[in-house]
Amino acid sequence: MYHKRFRADPLILGSTFVIIGVLIVFPFTLLFINSLKADGVFTFQNYVTVFQANRNYTALFNSLKLGFFTSLFSVLLGAPLAWLVTRTNLPFAKLFKTLFILPYMIPPFVGAIAWSQLLNRRNGYINSWAASLFGLEGHVFDVNTMPGLIWVMTLYLYPFVFITVAGALERMDPTLEEAARTCGAKTMRIMRDITLPLVAPSIAGGALLVFASTIANFGIPALIGMQGRVYVLTTMIYSYMRRGLTGIAMASALSILLMSISVGALLLNNLYLKKKQYTLISGKSMRPTKLDLRRWKIPILILAFLVVFVTVIMPFVSISLTSFLDAWGAKITWDNLTLKNYRYILFEYALTKDAFKNSFLLAISAATVCMVLGSLIAYISVKTKIRGRKALEAVSQLPYAVPGTVVAIAMILAWSGKYGINLYNTFWIILLAYIARYVAFAVRTTSASLEQIHPSLEEAARISGGSWLTSLKDIVVPLIRPGLVAGWFLIFMPTLRELTMSILLWGPKTVTIGVAIFEMQEAGYVQISSAFATILLVIVIVGNLFVKWLTKGKAGI
Amino acid sequence: MSRVVLKNLSKSFGEVNVVNDISLEIIDHEFLSFLGPSGCGKTTTLRMIAGFDMPTAGEIFIGDRLVSSAEKKVFVPPEDRNVGMVFQNYAVWPHMDVFKNVAYPLKISKVKSADIRDRVMRVLSLVKLKGMESRYPHQLSGGQQQRVALARALIMEPDVMLLDEPLSNLDAKLREEMRFEIKDIQRRIGVTIIYVTHDQAEAMAMSDRILLLHEATVQQLGTPRELYERPENQFAADFIGLINFLRIELISKGDGLCARFLDADDDTPFDINYSPEQLSAGMQRVFAVRPENVKLVSPREGHVTGKVRKKVYLGNILDYRIVLGKEEIRVEAPSTAKYDIDQVVGLKFTDYVIFE
Ligand SMILES: Nc1ncnc2c1ncn2[C@@H]1O[C@H](COP(=O)(O)OP(=O)(O)OP(=O)(O)O)[C@@H](O)[C@H]1O
Ligand SMILES: [Mg+2]
């Protein structure tokens, strides 16, 4: 006997498709169309114009150059460190493993601020110190150059290579190396013939991730490159948009270009290299024999500590020290230290107070909406047989795969009044952008936990008379709650410090933390932006520790 | 000279003793198996011989060379031991084709490339992999990969080959085939082989001698026949083949001894062929007898009587279960035997062992 009952599922599930359509498909289609339209007709004119302008050409070339060298140096730094931590008897290996990942936790624009304090031409701490030490006139380093960009970017992104290579080395079956030893090969020979070829796909994978993230990064090239007139694609798009909506045609064409490059890199990784990584490396977890560093132990330990000192401690000290300075550029003495910068941003300056309020509100709303929407998508994809469910999931992943700059441009195209709704310069356009970009996280965390729920649990609830909604509420949600909570924080944390999209979307009333720090730094209020950045760093670190604790070490950045 | 000598070899990980005082001499060209249940320390012992683990105590000689000694602080690394090893999971390199895998040891020892080709082909035909030189491991079956690993170990012409459960991942038929091939290869090239397995049938079929291990200690060392017919303790008796254990009490009878079952209804004493030097009256012992060593006879002719509870026809034999009071005993009789359920029969023991 079947009772006709009001069925909520078609309505809710159906509207999920509509929301994703409006939120993601619509803006990105517009972006694509817009790049092909000039003066109302379809044409490749925009692309032609893009390449006619020399500076665009230079920006593209700079992006590729920056991407290439950052990947290269990330491999040179990350891969040996991964090997040291996993395969040798380096003391404190476990601690170093955490410390080597830490730079990635520092928001890139904060790192950029730190490094411009340390290495800028006029009064960078290291430059002044070197000058006084060797009695030099002028500067030794200039961070506002391509090499400076590569340096800062590498220190921020090398953890990608470190993580993938360390993972591969840990999963690699140690008997493969032992077999080579019984054949008479010595350690160095084994590294060359066995270990290196086996982890090569993972190294390449990590390098591609670094490449894609470098190309997509805005904060570092904006704060370090623009001052030295080194433009890359993201900063070029930003400078077009600075002129208001008139630059949007060029910005769209550049965005499509930027998107193709970074998506291309990610696809290459996913389609080709991931497969290789799996076939090469067994899932067995056996403990490999660790190489005894012997007399190299202490020198290498010092070197490892130096890496931590340069990548983590120096930027942190620089930022926090500057935040206590009375006057920027003055000598660091007790008389010169003050708390007034903190007092100013926390209690006096309206802009920063707004920024705190906006960012918290945005992060909380974005995380909440993302979790609801993301769980629905994950549910549809994992638990139903609705046609188009895989496409829905794939589309939901798209905005995270493309650079944030591109997402922001797409949002501006869709919601600046051309199609009836004008959200330009409002809170809502930023929120939409955050949701679009980070819903991918929500889908991934929830589908992972949903996959572990056996369908029989849910069916049992429905057989015993529950409707779809009750079974969802009583069975599914409680079972995936830990995943939901962790997912929420994994969205809350990065949106709180978001810069790339916010900088293109903010209006007079919607300044965010990232934007505030960026604008103050650009305007030369170095101590205030440092104080703000220090507070942000503390929030990020505490937040990460909290997420780590919450998920028992499984998540966190 | 390719004997292997272990002297009071021990290994512990932290507090846990994983290998406990093993002493053993494996003679030239011998096929010796380490047999024992999972976790008894077989792999650890093998890895110490190969040089991947350092012993906590004791010494290892390969040939006449001392390769490991905890006391004398001697340790020859694996690459200098000239020991071939086939790992349990093959450890065939996935980024090299069959030829490169097998040729690798020769490349390391800088053999001329013309010679390499010759020798690789010879070894590949030995393990019946000719024509597969350019395949990659993922294009090979488990059995073929295992033979690649074997070829790679053989080509070094090692003094000693260590094989760690090399057949455990194969299906029954292939396993049978590979057993034969490994044995055959050994006969042809005359290498000393130490073979690890937890499969007693495999050890029995292939080995010259078997080292039986349990909980890190040696239980027995001997030929397959010795292990089967003269097990030295209950564990050995139980681990290899089928056996019945019955509690007995020893009673003196004139100059000699006889025994009676403690848990049987029929406790008539019966003669045993143990001398009073080995045992004495009043002792309680365990009487172990294999099913094929019990003959079913008429009640008056047997050592004890029992009642048939069950019989199963297995073609060549009849599998009987005979009740002796509280205990039951398993008997294999020729399929011509004709005893019915509930019939009272006599049991005659043709061979047996008595344990503490
Ligand atoms: N590196 C190690 N650290 C601590 N304990 C270990 C280590 N390696 C092995 N053991 C322990 O030593 C014991 C013997 O291990 P071993 O691998 O030698 O067993 P095995 O006889 O080969 O068993 P199997 O038949 O399952 O392969 C096991 O209890 C195992 O847990
Ligand atoms: Mg083992």
From TrEMBL, chain A:
Q: Where in the cell is it found?
A: Cell inner membrane; Cell membrane
Q: Can you give the residue ranges of the ABC transmembrane type-1 domain? A: 60-267, 356-547
- Keywords noted in UniProt: Cell inner membrane, Cell membrane, Membrane, Transmembrane, Transmembrane helix, Transport
Give TM segment ranges: 12-33, 66-86, 98-118, 149-169, 198-224, 244-268, 300-325, 360-382, 394-415, 421-440, 524-547
A Pfam family it matches: BPD_transp_1
User: Which GO cellular component terms are attached?
Assistant: plasma membrane
Q: Which SUPFAM superfamilies match?
A: MetI-like
What superkingdom heads the lineage? Bacteria
Q: What is this protein called?
A: Binding-protein-dependent transport systems inner membrane component
Q: Which organism is it from?
A: Mesotoga prima
Q: What taxonomic ancestry is recorded?
A: Bacteria, Thermotogati, Thermotogota, Thermotogae, Kosmotogales
UniProtKB/TrEMBL annotation, chain B:
Q: Which domain of life is it from?
A: Bacteria
ABC transporter domain span: 4-240
Q: Spell out the SUPFAM superfamilies in the cross-references.
A: MOP-like (SSF50331), P-loop containing nucleoside triphosphate hydrolases (SSF52540)
Q: Which UniProt keywords apply?
A: ATP-binding, Cell membrane, Membrane, Nucleotide-binding, Translocase, Transport
Which Pfam family, any one of them, does this sequence belong to?
ABC_tran
Asked if Heme is a keyword of the record, the answer is: no
Transmembrane domains' residue ranges: none
Q: Which GO terms describe its molecular function?
A: ABC-type transporter activity; ATP binding; ATP hydrolysis activity
GO cellular-component term (any): ATP-binding cassette (ABC) transporter complex, substrate-binding subunit-containing
Taking the record's annotation, the residue ranges forming a coiled coil are none
Name recorded for this polypeptide: Putrescine transport ATP-binding protein
- Originating organism: Mesotoga prima
